[in-house]
Specification:
Blueprint (H helix, E strand, L loop, with lengths): L2 H33 L17 E2 L3 E2 L8 E9 L6 E3 L1 E4 L8 E3 L11 E3 L9 E3 L4 E12 L12 E3 L1 E4 L1
Amino acid sequence: MSVVRIARSRARLWIVGLVAVLVVAVAGVAVARWTASGSGTASADTGAGVDVTITPGTPTAALYPGITSAVVLTLTNPGSGPVRVGSLTLATDEGAGGFEVDAGHPDCDEQSLSYTTQTNGGAGWSLAAGATLPLTLTGALALSPGADDGCQGATFTVHLAATG
C-alpha cells in the first residue's frame, strides 16, 4: 500500500468515526427531549377587571325589533400608568342585567335587549395615563325580534365592564 492510500484510508476512517459520533449525539438529544419531564410554577394574567372609568353606553340610533345599533361611550384612564382594555363586556350587576330603559317605558322588558362583547377586532384598546377615549361600538346592541310594543321609542342605557 502506498502512503497516499494509507492517508486516504485514515481520512475516511476519521470522517466515518466523526459521523458516527454525531449520529449518536443527535439520537441521544432526541431521546432526552422526548422522555424528559419536569415541574415548576407559573403565573398568568386572568384578564380580570381593568381600572378605567366607563360612561354608560347609549345606542346611536333608535332600536327596532330585530335591528342592531352601535353603542357610544367614553373610556377614561384615571391612573398614572397606561392600561390596555382587551374587551368590553356587559356589566350584568348594574341596571337590569346590564341594561336600563327610560322611566317613560315601564312596559319595555330589558330581557329583549342583547349586547355583543366588543374586542376591537381582537386588538383591544390602549389608554395612556389620564387619557380619555371616545368609542363607537358598531353592532353591539340588539333588540330581539319578539320585543313587545312597550319598547317603542324607549331610550336605553348599556352598562359595560372592561377586562384586560
